[in-house]
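Hi R.,

Quick one: here's the EAL domain-containing protein sequence you asked about.
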Amino acid sequence: MLAFKEEYPLSAMARVAMADVVVPFYQPIIGRDRQVRGYEALARRWDAVTQSYQGIDFASLSQDESLHLDIVMLRAIMGDLPVLAKGGPYALSINLNPVLSSPIYRNLLLLVLLQARKVGITIWFEVLEHARLERQYRALIEVLRAHGAHIACDDFGSLACNFPRLMVQPYDIVKLDRSLLLQAERSTHALKVLTGLVICLQGLGMAVVCEGVETQTHVELANRLGCDYQQGYAYARPSPLSRWC
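And here's the predicted structure, written out as tokens:
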């Protein structure tokens, strides 16, 4: 078990100077063979009061705070890539900030792709469920795809992320929102519908990740669904890179 705990969310006061202490934690993405096939990078910060790493409530941040945090994260991830690659080949999933006002951020995205290619890591950029898929944003996605990125639809099945988003933007990967797995756990009908959805997405050429896999029952359900990948606490909590490499 881990020696630290995660707590949510950060208060406004706790966000002061947070960019100086934000670090990437990594959560394994598990393949059908039960082997680690990649990781998702997640932002964490050390809180001196609680002596623990905490998650960050991005919804409570301003656009500038969120963007600055992601710039810090990308720089840290670039430094981690050579170490992460030693156990690979892996995929690395990174959230894509919906704010495109910073040339520094856009350049860092391309630098991460370049560095990842050098060390044999495939980058997945996750399009967040609340991101507005305007023309400028879709143009950036296509630039990233042209440089080797795979594009993932995050939290598919949540209220803000459903079939219309798949109609607007093509994806390589779809990450199922945890709420779908919970419904399938409670209802045979929901399980049948979700199974059909997974088959449909895979038939369209998209890999499917089942998120929120927290119990052995969830593992068994994800197996029945035929998902390509699973991710959740049943396998591991997000942890510093030193735990995995």
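The beta strands are 22-31, 36-47, 52-54, 91-96, 122-127, 150-156, 173-176, 207-210, 229-230.

Cheers,
M.
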